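Progress report, Aim 2. The chain analyzed during this reporting quarter is listed below.
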Amino acid sequence: MKTGISLTAVGHATSLFLAVAFILCVLWGLLLPEYVMYPSWRILLPGFEWLSWRSFILGLVESWSYGWYFALIWVPIYNFFAGHTKTVS
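Predicted structure tokens for the chain:
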């Protein structure tokens, strides 16, 4: 029985989640500018400026990269512990 989870699946799923969240936040900022998240993005997304196509693409790439960063660290740790824990039946 295989224990553990797929790095590829978690990497793509997490990256897609963060990219979609970024797009929704940009739309939210365009619809309700008083609630824009730009101050947070300046810290989390280096080089992001409100709002140009170049900056939007950069934000998408950085969001996607953060998803893979998370997966590359979390999945091996999870798989290590999943393989070393005993289940009680």
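The chain has three helices and no strands. The radius of gyration is 17 Å. These observations will guide the mutagenesis work planned for the next reporting period.
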